[in-house]
Specification:
The chain is mainly alpha-helical and 395 residues long. Among the domains are: 81 residues, no CATH class; 149 residues, Glycosyltransferase, CATH 1.50.10.10. The protein is 54% helix and 9% strand. The protein contains 13 helices and nine strands. It has a three-stranded antiparallel beta sheet with strand order 5-6-7, with no helix packed on it. A two-stranded antiparallel sheet has the order 1-2. A two-stranded antiparallel sheet has the order 3-4. Strand 1 and strand 2 form a beta hairpin.
Length: 395
């Protein structure tokens, strides 16, 4: 028979263990209610579809006068609306999103012949790529393979990089860090077609970008300009605060791009690059406490500078994938904190407002006074992708 003292000790231990278990459970609770955010996204995008019926004009942003900004299919962002609809289909398995996604995806089809842009990955892979992944529609595959051939024409083997723009400030062969994002499209095309040309282009571009685009602290320049022999002539910015500053969305493209390159190749140098870029972002003294970066990490008037929700959404999505390769909890926590902030009242739109975009407070190009402190379609796309990746990690 237990003594009263023993009973009290056992009760105390039981209460302590119960408290510990409760505390651990609370700590393990996800910071983002994915189901709640997806319900909100569904409601907003139902309104978005009702408000946008012209398949030749794609929702892009909100103008300074408060009116909706739409663009034609040759704009680099044309694939993001269809891609967002595919993510909603993936979340819900509801055919109404599949029908809508197909409609807005097919509206981009003619860009498969577009050889004037490096952004065919954004335009075709974010739309048709997600559609093919979810439906195995062979028509999507055929369209993308034509588009991959178009993108490959912008690669110059003597320079070893895919040309971004036709000209930039007097330089004839500019390459931007954003271009890393289009390599996923080409690497898909290798698997879909068996054509090693796409593989060789992707690896060469990624390696030369790794070699020439980064500073010693692993921050990225925005634009690197080359001569016809592949020699670096200048390192510049177009959308950042200064040539030597760290434009926030550029750093997001970089960590996302090299994480993807590791996934597709298994080459550890790409993984190490992604890890080091992630460390640069996470440890930067100008990263705010809510983890939503200023539009440039070195913007001149911090803390009175605009935040960039799009940079946070892209970074969060990249870090969630990177975490699956490193098991580095710091990467997961930073991504989760970014998602939690994006899902909060400051950055999430009120229902039925914001021209039905999900997120507020993105910055397209402050130097050009374009899309400053406004919703932008690619912020929504990468936010939904990050929510999808987050939900899979929680299972």
């Amino acid at each position: 028979m237990l003594s009263p003292l023993t009973k009290r000790m056992m009760k105390t231990i039981f209460l302590a263990v119960t408290l510990l278990i409760t505390t651990l459970r609370l700590q393990a609770q996800p910071k983002v209610d994915v189901n709640k955010e997806i319900e909100f996204a569904k409601a907003q995008y139902e309104l978005m579809l009702k408000a946008n019926t012209d398949l030749s004009r794609f929702p892009q942003s909100v103008k300074q006068d408060g009116t909706l900004d739409t663009r034609t299919s040759d704009w680099w962002c044309s694939g993001f609306f269809g891609g967002s609809l595919w993510y909603l289909y993936e979340f819900t398995s509801d055919d109404k999103w599949k029908v809508a996604a197909d409609k807005w995806t097919m509206a981009v089809e003619k860009e498969k012949y577009n050889k004037t842009t490096h952004d065919l990955g954004f335009m075709l892979y974010c739309s048709f790529g997600n559609g093919y992944r979810l439906t195995n529609n062979e028509q999507y595959k055929d369209i993308m393979l034509v588009g991959a051939e178009s993108l490959a024409t912008r690669f110059n083997p003597k320079i070893g990089l895919i040309k971004s723009w036709e000209e930039f400030k007097g330089f004839d062969y500019p390459v931007i860090i954003d271009n890393m994002m289009n390599l996923e499209f080409l690497l898909w095309a290798v698997k879909a077609s068996g054509n090693r040309k796409f593989h060789d282009i992707s690896i060469t571009h990624a390696d030369n970008t790794l070699k020439n685009h980064f500073r010693k602290d692993y921050s990225s320049y925005h634009v690197v300009c080359y001569d016809t022999a592949g020699k670096v002539l200048a390192r510049k910015t177009n959308q950042g605060a200064a040539d030597e500053s760290a434009w926030a969305r550029g750093q997001a493209w970089a960590v996302y791009g090299y994480t993807m390159m590791y996934r597709e190749t298994g080459n550890k140098k790409y993984l190490n690059q992604a890890i080091n870029i992630a460390k640069f972002i996470a440890s930067h003294p100008n990263l705010p406490s809510d983890k939503i970066p200023y539009w440039d990490f070195n913007a001149p008037d911090i803390p009175n500078e605009e935040r960039d929700a799009s940079a946070a959404a892209i970074t969060a999505s990249a870090l969630l994938e990177l975490y699956t390769y490193t098991n580095d909890k710091a990467q997961f926590r930073l991504a989760e904190d970014m998602l939690a902030s994006l899902s909060g009242k400051v950055y999430t739109a009120s229902p039925g407002k914001n021209h039905n975009f999900l997120l507020k407070h993105s910055v397209g190009s402050k130097p050009y006074k374009s899309e400053v402190n406004t919703p932008i379609i690619y912020a929504d796309y990468y936010y939904l992708e990050a929510l999808l990746r987050y939900s899979k990690l929680l299972k």
